[in-house]
Design brief:
Residues 1-20 form the signal peptide. The structure is a single chain. This protein has 230 residues and is an all-alpha fold. The chain folds into three domains: 16-117, no CATH class; 130-169, no CATH class; 184-225, no CATH class. It contains twelve helices and two strands; from the N terminus they run H-H-H-H-H-H-H-H-H-E-H-H-H-E. It has a two-stranded parallel sheet. Helix 7 crosses helix 8. The longest helix is centred in the first third of the chain and has 11 residues, at 2-12.
Length: 230
């Protein structure tokens, strides 16, 4: 009777997972050699396929310890490809080869280490008239790369910590001692010229000299605009 009770107790205990083996006793390994190229997102989105082909990589069983693939980008412009590349399974092999860190296809521990060592670009604008281009430039994918380089602070492309510091240093001062100068168009009918005259840096000096009111260049130069009389 004692022997039967002992057997029943053993059968009631849960099977422990042994490192390097699945609960069914089979070796915990991947059926294919390139599971890492598909990324961790594949494990949940295509779970049935992943359980059959990438059990160890997706941690459906406990595999022997291995050295993880470095969490680095092989390309210096991964951000130019946007989030779509990171999320589309069709590009998973390319992402894992070229933009692993940018697309966050590393383990949580790896990401925490790399994030702590990565220094973001300075939170400053490279040009003084970012406000002239407006927030549309910041949000338009066509100009985003330009905005990230030239108007990083204006477009709020900095980290939260950087923005807090930059905002605290940015103050608006009004100097009453120096009165603003009048600003007027020197030539009539500036509106006959193409808008490119106002926005193209090639014609900037001409526009400031001849059509500052029409081109809205008065406020940026500290002048009071004088509108033409009808």
């Amino acid at each position: 009777m004692t022997g039967i009770m002992y057997i029943l107790i053993l059968l009631s205990l849960p099977f422990a997972t042994v490192t390097g083996q699945s609960t069914d006793g089979s070796v915990c390994r991947d059926k294919i050699d390139n599971c890492a190229t598909y990324g961790q997102t594949t494990c949940q989105k295509f779970q049935q396929w992943a359980q059959q082909n990438c059990r160890a990589f997706c941690q459906f069983c406990v595999a022997p310890p291995t050295t993880p693939v470095p969490c680095v980008d092989q390309l210096g412009n991964c951000q130019d490809y946007g989030a779509t590349v990171c999320q589309n399974p069709l590009y998973a092999p390319w992402v894992m080869e070229n933009c692993r860190y940018h697309c966050r296809q590393c383990s949580d521990d790896q990401l925490a280490i790399v994030d702590s060592k990565t220094t973001p670009p300075p939170c400053v604008d490279q040009i003084n008239n970012c406000s002239r281009y407006g927030q549309v430039t910041c949000m338009n994918a066509k100009y985003k790369r330009w905005a990230q380089t030239n108007c990083r602070y204006f477009c709020r492309f900095c980290t939260q910590e950087q923005l807090l510091i930059a905002d605290s240093k940015t103050t608006t001062t009004t100097t009453l001692a120096t009165p603003l100068k009048p600003c007027a168009d020197k030539i009539p009918h500036c509106d006959v010229y193409n808008d490119d005259v106002c926005t193209n840096e090639k014609y900037r000096s001409w526009a400031e000299e001849n059509c500052p009111v029409y081109c809205m260049l008065c406020s940026t130069s500290g002048f009071i605009p004088i509108l033409p009389q009808n």
